[in-house]
């Protein structure tokens, strides 16, 4: 028997049957469940979605426990760990994550399961606290108000100056984004920042050359 055979045999004997006590298993599942419920509550309180998805939130909590179970099983036996790696490598997830915050919570849930399964409970607790504080601080950072879009349909092409005069009266900042001119009309889009939105639109619509006037906001955020 050569050196390689001895090394392989000792390696396999060391990892083939690593006994994990029942107390460690119960402790891992207990801490994982507690932190999974914590993630569940944080997601419920901090989600910015218009329609809250309870199913996704429940899956976050369950994912932590499942991940912890996988890590415990992989520690108990080298053959099982290799089998799980092969089995998990063929899994493909087709559900698109629309909100980036959902992706953050998804990785948070998986990482808690991995850390608790490895028995590093203090690291898991500290991770939850740091992530929560980080999300709260960054979420409450002040941002400037996003500009609005004034969409005007004019029956006279020469009436553009009249519209821009009213825009300058209500807004310090404005920028013409597009002009669509036909033989008898003109569609114009102007980016503006106004406070009194109702009075601004009413004054623009009172012009004789204005057929329709719309002030549109968007969901984008700016940092300055």
Characterise the protein shown here:
The chain contains eight helices and four strands; from the N terminus they run ααααααβαββαβ. The protein is an alpha+beta fold and 224 residues long. It folds into two domains: 3-139, no CATH class; 148-216, 2-Layer Sandwich (Alpha-Beta Plaits). Strand 2 and strand 3 form a beta hairpin. It is rod-shaped. The model has no long low-confidence stretch (mean pLDDT 78).
Uncertain segments are none
Look at the structure and give the mean pLDDT. Answer: 78
Give the CA-CA distance, first to last residue: 71 Å
Oligomer: single chain
Give the % helix.
55-70%
Shape: rod-shaped
Structural class: alpha+beta
**What is the H-and-E element order?**
HHHHHHEHEEHE
Main sheet properties: 4 strands, antiparallel
Number of helices: 8
Q: What's the alpha carbon Rg, rounded to whole Å? A: 30 Å
In total, the number of domains comes to 2
Using DSSP, what is the number of strands?
4
Query: If strands are numbered along the chain, what order do they take across the biggest sheet?
Result: 2-3-1-4
Beta-strand content estimate: 5-15%
Protein topology:
Blueprint: H1 3-15, H2 22-46, H3 54-76, H4 78-89, H5 100-117, H6 121-139, E1 148-154, H7 160-170, E2 174-181, E3 186-192, H8 197-205, E4 210-216
Antiparallel strand pairs: 1-3, 1-4, 2-3
């Amino acid at each position: 028997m050569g050196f390689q055979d001895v090394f392989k045999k000792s390696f396999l004997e060391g990892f083939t049957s690593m006994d994990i006590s029942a107390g460690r298993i119960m402790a891992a599942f207990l801490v994982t469940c507690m932190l999974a419920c914590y993630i569940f509550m944080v997601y419920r309180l901090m989600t910015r979605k218009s329609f809250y998805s309870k199913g996704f939130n429940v899956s976050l909590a369950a994912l932590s426990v499942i991940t912890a179970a996988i890590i415990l099983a992989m520690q108990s036996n080298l053959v099982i760990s290799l089998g799980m790696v092969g089995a998990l490598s063929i899994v493909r997830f087709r559900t698109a994550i629309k909100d980036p915050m959902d992706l953050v919570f998804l990785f948070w849930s998986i990482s808690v399961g991995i850390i608790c399964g490895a028995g590093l409970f203090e690291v898991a607790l500290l991770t939850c606290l740091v992530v929560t504080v980080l999300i709260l601080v960054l979420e409450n950072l002040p941002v400037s108000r996003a500009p609005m879009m004034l969409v005007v349909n004019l029956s006279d092409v020469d009436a553009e100056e009249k519209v821009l005069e009213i825009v300058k009266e209500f807004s310090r900042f404005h920028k013409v984004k597009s002009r669509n001119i036909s033989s008898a009309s003109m569609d114009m889009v102007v980016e503006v920042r106004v406070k009194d939105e109702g009075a601004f639109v009413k004054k623009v619509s009172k012009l004789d050359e204005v057929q329709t006037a719309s002030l549109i906001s968007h969901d984008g955020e700016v940092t300055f």
